[in-house]
Amino acid sequence: MKRNLHWLLLVALLVALAFDAIVWSAAAQMPGSGIHLYRSARREAPLTYFYMLAGRPLRALPPLRDYGDAYAQHALSGVADEITMKPELAMEIAHGSGSAGKLATLQWMHYAPPLLFVAWLVAYLRRPKAVHLVARRR
Q1: Spatial CB neighbours of 101, under 8 Å, sequence gap ≥ 6
Q2: Under 8 Å CB-to-CB from 45, ≥6 apart: which residues?
Q3: Distances (CA, A) of 52 to 2, 22, 64, 117
Q4: Which has the closest alpha carbon to 25: 65, 52, 57?
Q5: How many CA atoms lie within 13 A of 97 on its CB side?
Q6: Is 108 exposed, middle or buried (0-12, 13-18, 19+ CB in 10 A)?
Q7: Residues 47-68: pLDDT tens digits?
Q8: Which residues of 12-26 are buried (b: 16+ CB within 10 A; e: fewer)?
Q9: Rounded to the nearest 5 degrees, what angle is found at the Cα of 98, between the Cα atoms of 96 and 102?
Q10: Cα-flanking dihedrals φ and ψ of residue 8, to 5°?
Q11: What pTM, to 2 d.p., does this model score?
Q12: pLDDT digit string (tens) for 95-111?
């Protein structure tokens, strides 16, 4: 297990990064509050802004676009009106304490890629190395 831990962490990192990129990119495209989220992320939240930019190419695939749109709409529907009324607080509202399950999951997954990257780096550096008892012939 320890031998393959860095591979498992790499897969988890890529899945978490793709999830965040797809959903935050879809949130930036939401009618009404999407432009406020995008502008606020550009000013205040570099990680969220990175997710929004990284998700643009992924939105070219219709299944990913549909999933992201549905998830973002469901997660941010409770706070979309508040974001529209207070556009200068869009990131604080989106990252604030959410009572909805999908919004809480979105907030929890926001910091998963950087943490998984650190865990992957540690696992990669500490992976067992191959041991050669006999010199190789050339």
Answers
A1: none
A2: 91, 95
A3: 34, 8, 14, 19
A4: 52
A5: 0
A6: exposed
A7: 999 999 999 999 899 999 999 9
A8: ebeebbbbbbbbbbb
A9: 125
A10: -65, -40
A11: 0.85
A12: 876 656 777 788 888 88
